[in-house]
Design brief:
414 residues, alpha/beta, 3 domains, two-stranded antiparallel sheet, 59% helix
Length: 414
């Protein structure tokens, strides 16, 4: 097997090919285009077949990465921080160039290729589904940021509006802000005009009308007219942006669930307790379809952030939160664990034991997600729907075996 390193930039791909013994076979630079990739393939494959060449890169995305996979190369995505530490170990002078980086990538792969796994893309159908779920999360995060910004602006420049509607991000509240973007305009509204406006916009909570009228008449802190005028453009922009995000997230939810309906895994993932229209697709996006994706449950737990990190040396030992993981998966599993404990008695009991042992809320949820992940991987392998009775009975049998195993070990080792 030969080993190559490719250091990429927007304009060039710097490559370096060497043998396991350290002999440099070829190195150079090509553009990330059709012609450039053809030149790269010709240079590399003049020394070996594509399947016999491992390539180390610092990214797992991009059209040129897909071209390498389609050609049959074994592509190893590496953590840039790990490669940086390796470069510093080779030379402490701090020099960094593209030529050095491509060489370091190849040398790292020569040394540690057995400890790293080549990139194995999942089924294209699942990859598309995963991208949809991750893009939805980015929209939700943008939506949260915009709502928080709007709330901060309203507290300072439009305090009369706060409490008028149930939530700032409802479409009717956003329409109101766009039509009445200053406190002065809102306070000029009469009771009759407010009721007529709400009726035209099909307000669906008539029991709150009297409370809204009372809110309209309550005294509030005064805001200078010039400050209100200065901020009304921003308020309109935020209201318009949040309303567009509401529509985009709703459309994305429909697209994701329609996609999920056509997948064979939809039945078992929807059978999970607490996995609704948002969490069920996200869980499937995390687990994927490839049965060889994880060598063990421990590997999956490390990737998805449920397993803590242990550091020990001599008498020193500390266990802390795992930061280097797939953040989307960790968030999804923790949210699912939180929802599951409201429907699964065993999950709630497990959570309470974790809290009673001194763990905080989020640490207890990660511990529950750690337990759930093993169940989810077993369900993924079998394709069976979740059955509470099967899990509880198997857990009971395991607990009954524990004293017998301890007794057998005592007699064996004594």
């Amino acid at each position: 097997m030969l080993f190559a390193g490719i250091d990429w930039s927007e304009k060039f791909l710097d490559f370096h090919l060497r043998t396991a013994g350290g002999k440099v076979l070829v190195e150079g630079q090509v553009r990330p285009s059709v012609e450039g990739m053809a030149d790269l393939f010709a240079e590399l494959e003049s020394h070996a077949l594509a399947s016999e060449i491992g390539i180390a890169i610092e990214t797992a995305h991009g059209a040129w990465v897909q071209a390498l996979l389609d050609r049959g190369y074994q592509v190893y995505p590496l953590n840039p921080k790990t490669v940086e530490r390796f470069r510093e170990a080779l030379s402490a002078n701090g020099v960094k160039t593209d030529k050095i980086d491509r060489k370091v990538l190849a040398m790292f792969l020569v040394t540690f290729h057995q400890e790293n796994k080549p990139l194995r893309p999942d089924d294209p159908e699942i990859i598309q589904f995963r991208i949809l779920c991750q893009d939805r999360l980015r929209l939700v995060e943008e939506h949260t940021a915009k709502v928080n910004e709007l709330q901060a602006v309203l507290k300072c420049y439009y305090p009369a509006f706060l409490g008028l509607f149930g939530g700032l991000d409802s479409n009717i509240a956003l329409d109101f802000l766009q039509q009445f973007p200053t406190q002065k305009q809102m306070q000029k509204l009469s009771e009759r005009r407010l009721r007529n406006w709400l009726s035209r916009h099909h307000y669906s909570f008539p029991k709150r009308l009297d409370g809204m009228v009372a809110t309209l008449k309550q005294p509030v802190l005064l805001v200078a007219d010039h400050l209100q005028e200065a901020k009304k453009t921003l308020i309109c922009y935020l209201a318009r942006s949040i309303k567009m995000l509401n529509a985009e997230i709703a459309e994305r939810d429909k697209q994701i669930n329609d996609h999920l309906d056509g997948l064979p895994e939809s039945n078992w993932v929807r059978s999970l307790p607490g996995a609704g229209k948002v969490l069920a697709p996200s869980l499937l996006a995390c687990l994927g379809r490839d049965p060889q994706r994880f060598c063990s449950v421990g590997e999956a737990r490390a990737l998805m952030g449920t397993a803590p990190v242990t550091k020990a040396s001599g008498n020193f030992r500390v266990v802390h939160f795992r930061r280097g993981c797939w953040k989307f998966a960790r968030r999804t599993l923790q949210l699912f664990a939180d929802q599951s404990r409201h429907q699964c008695p065993w999950a709630q009991n497990f959570y309470e034991k974790q809290r009673n042992s001194g763990r905080k809320h989020h640490a207890a949820l990660r511990a529950l997600a750690h337990r759930w992940l093993k169940i989810l991987l077993a369900m993924k392998q079998s394709g069976n729907l979740y059955n509470e009775d099967i899990f509880v009975s198997s857990q009971r049998r395991y607990l009954l075996k524990m004293p017998m195993l301890k007794t057998a070990n005592y007699f064996f080792f004594s």
